[in-house]
Amino acid sequence: MVKIVGIGGSLRPNSYSQIALSLAAARVEALGAEMEILDLRAMQLPFCNGEDEYLDYPDVEQLRNTVKLADGLILATPEYHGSVSGVLKNALDLMDFEQLDGKVTGLISVLGGQSKSNALNDLRVIMRWVHAWVIPEQIAVGQAWKAFSDGKILDEKLSQRFDQFAQSLVENTRKLRGVS
Amino acid sequence: MVKIVGIGGSLRPNSYSQIALSLAAARVEALGAEMEILDLRAMQLPFCNGEDEYLDYPDVEQLRNTVKLADGLILATPEYHGSVSGVLKNALDLMDFEQLDGKVTGLISVLGGQSKSNALNDLRVIMRWVHAWVIPEQIAVGQAWKAFSDGKILDEKLSQRFDQFAQSLVENTRKLRGVS
Amino acid sequence: MVKIVGIGGSLRPNSYSQIALSLAAARVEALGAEMEILDLRAMQLPFCNGEDEYLDYPDVEQLRNTVKLADGLILATPEYHGSVSGVLKNALDLMDFEQLDGKVTGLISVLGGQSKSNALNDLRVIMRWVHAWVIPEQIAVGQAWKAFSDGKILDEKLSQRFDQFAQSLVENTRKLRGVS
Amino acid sequence: MVKIVGIGGSLRPNSYSQIALSLAAARVEALGAEMEILDLRAMQLPFCNGEDEYLDYPDVEQLRNTVKLADGLILATPEYHGSVSGVLKNALDLMDFEQLDGKVTGLISVLGGQSKSNALNDLRVIMRWVHAWVIPEQIAVGQAWKAFSDGKILDEKLSQRFDQFAQSLVENTRKLRGVS
What we know:
The structure is a homotetramer. By secondary structure, chain A is of the alpha/beta class. Chain A has one domain (3-177): Flavodoxin domain (Rossmann fold, 3-Layer(aba) Sandwich), CATH 3.40.50. Chain A contains six helices and seven strands; from the N terminus they run βαβαβααβαβββα. In chain A, the strands form two sheets. Chain A has a five-stranded parallel sheet, sandwiched between helices. In chain A, strands 6-7 form a two-stranded antiparallel sheet. Chain A starts with a strand and ends with a helix. The A-B interface holds A 10-12, 15, 47-51, 78, 80-93, 118, 122, 125-126, 128-130 and B 10-12, 15, 47-51, 78, 80-93, 118, 122, 125-126, 128-130.
């Protein structure tokens, strides 16, 4: 069965990108995929220092093993200073081709202001660099503070965008990875 | 007197980007500027969680105050996965317009493989986002493991590039900031 | 006297990016700069074939000479397919360091949909490549069909953004180029 | 049968990007795909003016119809000023979702200097914008003047990269488009 792993790039307790990630994850599961979220807020990860081993941080191994076994990924980041959060980039820096190569990835960004694509563009090039696929469907949630209520998406068009995102991610991961 | 602050994006003990930063810094000082390097390896910084205050981490205030008082910046990053290191991006995430707006910035990246501009391009757009200036001169050090010896630059053309980089940074920071 | 040259990247008769360019140009002139607009709609330019000479197209020389004598540039592009128009990129391809190196550039993009920064980001990196400066202030006009009326800017905040853009371009071109 | 269309972004008679395109095309054909190259040097295309119809230029229809019927694309561009050539961007501007949506695309760039990814990065984001897929394998041919001889690739590793590029493009176009 196709397996998707989600990682959110915000450490804020009530993070909108974590909400967006969970909403996408629910849709992915409804399509029959196995879905697992790695919550960086509950993990102890070090700053990447370019080394391979982080013996004091067993969560590095958990991150690596979980992503390695995935067919697809959802990366959801707050847009900080017009790019991916340092938190999420650091988590990606802790991994390498062994974990990321060939993974089919869907990208979500969340902003306080008007929706932009800067963080999504940077993430697209970063994931290409590690030889991952990135689906054309992507979501930039602008003015995130009024996008969600009670864990639901208020705008119907945005909700449909989440539907299409999950549909494309699951369907095309199955095609590209040859899993059911 | 014009003041330049340098930040290196690698935590590796013998980091090439830290070497590149110190070589650029020496040239900047030789041109009569005040130069200070913030060594992230010696600072205790948290992951940015989107909040303003980090009371348990006094180094956040040191980072912010030092950058705030600067006229110009040198950002030197290892290129991880075709972009800026998460470590450096996180340090930038801990700051905001108050510290970064209007600063004149020079960018350096360091790679194990052939020189590319991906990290430099991303940093250029990130620094624009916080309303900083970025000088046209930039340095991508490829195959960094054979670029330096005893803290010196082996290739004459690369050495000249460092000269021009420092010259442009100091001269144009003076012009744009109206300092001597 | 500081001289600014503007180039618009749309060939449409009632182009919004040409309107935006003329509005920025009027502000630049009001600040005491000499301003000249090169209207690509009235020029006969060939597709760039990588050669230096285009003897059948005297407008290539006019483009090159006019830009060469400028201190600063305004580039205004419609955002086509999430990037700079081919028309504007081709005009830039017809020039080289001799014309573009060291010029201080302000960037404007115009979109039918919501304001994005993709074309601006690409232009920023392109202009850096030819060693031009790009000012931090940039303008992305979203939903351009309702932004202007009778050649005026309807939204007060957008109008102020044009003011600041022109102010920064003229002031900083003077500083960087040492002209009055 | 899977159909791939190639477009080269240079108008130079002995263009290296056209050579690179033909070498990739030969490999694609050898894998059993139908391959057609649209040579912009032999077509009369106008500058895009944002309109839908170009009645004086029947080659616009040929371009649109040929790409519309394709499953996959190869885009090969010279890197001009650190980005895609205006010629190729203009050809893309003449098309829209109707032709480009869902197409599986492989990207090649050709440079005089050291291999960079700027043009490839920009093209990746542009093709995403029109909802196309872009394969992770991409080729940047640096110092193109010494890369080819008699229409062959001199460097064995670069030749293998072309093999992998064609292999991935054909195989994954089949998977994503459900064609044989």
